[in-house]
Amino acid sequence: MEGSRFLAALAVSSVLALVFSMASAYDPSPLQDFCVAMNDPKNAVFVNGKFCKNPNLTVADDFSFSGLNIPGNTENRVGSNVTLLNVDRIPGLNTLGISLARLDFAPNGGLNPPHIHPRATEILVVVEGTLYVGFVTSNPNRLITKVLYPGDVFVFPIGLIHFQFNVGKTNAVAFAGLSSQNPGVITIANAVFGSNPSINSDVLVKAFQLDKNVVNYLQKLF
């Protein structure tokens, strides 16, 4: 009996250890004040996919960026622009597990298409205009949406498909914080129909229940 209890306790402990290890599977907590990313490996330490500058050589510019007040160019097919400040734009973000983005939307339908961030939760605040935003839960696929106005905030959980759409007649601007120094982005339509090399069209025909000519057209479009 005691042996059974011991094995049960051991099993529970193992499950809990697995759960907690999975729950912490995000950007690792830094073990130093900062690790300014650099491309030159000479006299540097390799951390989180980047080399770290000697802390004694860091300067204020390693932790700053200017120009986020400048609107992004929305004259494109979807009518939006994302200016992402990740570790590639601000080297001092390396190992700190956070990044920032400015989102600009053209009037009457500017769209940040359905996409995911594989490594980050996103929190968005609207500062100008009116945005219809939403995300889709994992199975069952339930759509959660809301119309946002200046000052409104919305959260998109990590790894879930989400979008922002300008339903107003004026430009819209929002800022987003992301819980990774390099959140990544997979735009669904681009990834499915514009991958390189292309996904076999027979796969897409069956997956989306589309005519093959439509699939071929979409693959050429993207």
TrEMBL record:
GO cellular component: apoplast
Signal peptide: 1-25
Compartmental location: Secreted, Extracellular space, Apoplast
GO molecular function: manganese ion binding
Domain Cupin type-1: 66-216
Disulfide cross-links: 35-52
Binding site for Mn(2+): 115, 117, 122, 162
Keyword Transcription in record: no
Keyword annotations: Apoplast, Disulfide bond, Glycoprotein, Manganese, Metal-binding, Secreted, Signal
SUPFAM superfamilies: RmlC-like cupins
Pfam families: Cupin_1 (PF00190)
Amino acids binding oxalate: 112, 117, 122
Database matches in InterPro entries: Cupin_1 (IPR006045), Germin (IPR001929), Germin_Mn-BS (IPR019780), RmlC-like_jellyroll (IPR014710), RmlC_Cupin_sf (IPR011051)
Family: Belongs to the germin family.
Main function: May play a role in plant defense. Probably has no oxalate oxidase activity even if the active site is conserved.
PANTHER family noted in UniProt: GERMIN-LIKE PROTEIN SUBFAMILY 3 MEMBER 3
Name recorded for this polypeptide: Germin-like protein
